[in-house]
Design brief:
The chain is mainly alpha-helical and about 160 residues long. It contains four helices and no strands. It is elongated. The relative contact order is 0.17.
């Protein structure tokens, strides 16, 4: 049985939502790992910020999972999970706060680009609920990137 254009569009949205779901869960893992692993006085503000953002990123993953289900998709278990945030892995030197900040910015920029594509695709498919979810998540990620860009300015001075 051939899929209609609408079904193909919905399948693509589910695929993109699944990628977003994985991105958010990987971010949760990396933020938690870095928040616990970082050492030193200069790390304290970054650790607090990362831990606070774990809750927000997890809420994003939950929202994406819910939307996948609403569209008739299946929420995948971890068997097919592949990591992609190489720059956000805890650095060998646990006092290298700047490496973590750069990793956060890199991960946020990847998420921002993905959500922009998701917004576009959802608009083309006239799926305004998915589009709204992606727009709200994009706003959160842009705000987070701005915060960490500010940290980078400050921490790069020394």
């Amino acid at each position: 049985m051939k899929k209609t254009m609408k079904e193909k569009g919905q399948a693509k949205l589910i695929e993109m939502l699944t990628s977003a779901y994985w991105m958010e869960l990987e971010t949760v893992m990396n933020y938690l790992a870095n928040a616990v692993d970082l050492d030193g006085v200069r790390a304290e503000e970054i650790k607090k910020s990362l831990l606070a953002d774990v809750t927000e990123e997890l809420a994003h993953a939950q929202a994406f999972a819910g939307r996948i289900k609403q569209l008739g998709g299946r929420i995948p278990g971890p068997v097919g999970f592949k990591t992609s945030q190489k720059s956000l892995q805890p650095p060998k030197d646990s006092t290298n706060v700047v490496a973590v900040i750069r990793g956060v910015i890199d991960a946020e920029e990847s998420a921002i680009e993905h959500y922009k594509h998701l917004i576009e695709r959802a608009g083309e498919s006239r799926d305004y609920v998915t589009q709204d979810l992606a727009v709200r998540t994009l706003a959160d990620e842009e705000s987070h990137r701005t915060l960490f860009a500010g940290y980078l300015k400050e921490y790069s001075k020394s």
